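Reading a protein record of the kind used here takes only a little practice. The record below shows the convention in full.

——
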Amino acid sequence: MPHQNDTKILKTDGVGNLNVLLACSPHTKLTEPFKGGTEAFSATLATELSKSKGYNVSVISDENEFHESFEPLELDSTFYDLSDRVRTNEQALSIYKALSFAMRPLNDFDLIHYNSFMPELYQSGTFQQLPVVVTLHIPPNPTQVKIHKSFCKLMKRVRYVAVSKRLKEAWAKHLTTSIDVIPNGVDVNKWSFNKSSNRSYYVWTGRISKEKNPRKAIEISRQLGLDLLLAGPIYDKEYFNVNVLPFLNNKIQYIGHIDQKALNALYEKAIAQLCTSNWQEPFGLNVIEALMCGVPVIGNINSIQPEFRELYGILPCEFQSAKELEDKLSETAIINRAECRKSAKAFGLKSMLESYVSIYDEVLSEA
């Protein structure tokens, strides 16, 4: 955590002893395996701001985790059992900590970068009139719209960023402030490329939930007799029990919530990745990760956002007929897997990092 006597410098090259607070949520875990793309983004950005830029970085996240490059910001806790107000005491404690953020002295920090969905954290944050950057990671819903409309009015210096053009367009209907677009970045060095043609199964990755729609991937596999491996956290246990568990067998397997190393190994022998979302993906980090490993992606319009559709290795498919599916599966045989990786490098980590440093510079220089 930064100290008050640290010299605060922001150089034009983006390198300096800047003190940054990334505001996720008090219960957010930023260690692998990540729960989702927002957690992966937050951990990666915090690490790179510290290692590559030399910034002092603290994060509002799970206080019990250890990170080499940054540390969680300690917020006040309580000994009271608050579970009578919400479903679990863990949820209640997270809300309590978020509200305590309003009273936490933040003189050590130069700016706050929000990556949170918690209404309480933004409400508390209005008492902290530091320069602010907010990254929008999910589509607008009534609760989130209300949060950010209020936040925009109450904050003196705030810049909004969306992780894709599609997400910006969705939010621009609700917010009057300008919204920049900075696509999420993937660290090329953390995703290995395997030239082997010995590939034997299809993969589906993501959180197990209705909006991600793994049931569709299972239906496709059963219809065409494909071997399918599913990986990701069980976000909705009831959905899993009804739409996934009954269909598991020796050809369709759920291998659990796995870390990046295991994902690399999974992609090594994958023919293609199936993306079957019901909702419009705000970004779709797993698409870029698969391409980075040389794995083509067969996905519908919800899963494959516009910025991805011209990338080599993207095979658009609405999963409407067996013929359409079979044609896309046949195309995977002639895909140049090295070109898949090359195309994914357009969404590298360095570009994302430099874009955020530029935004920080601008918001700090505003009068």
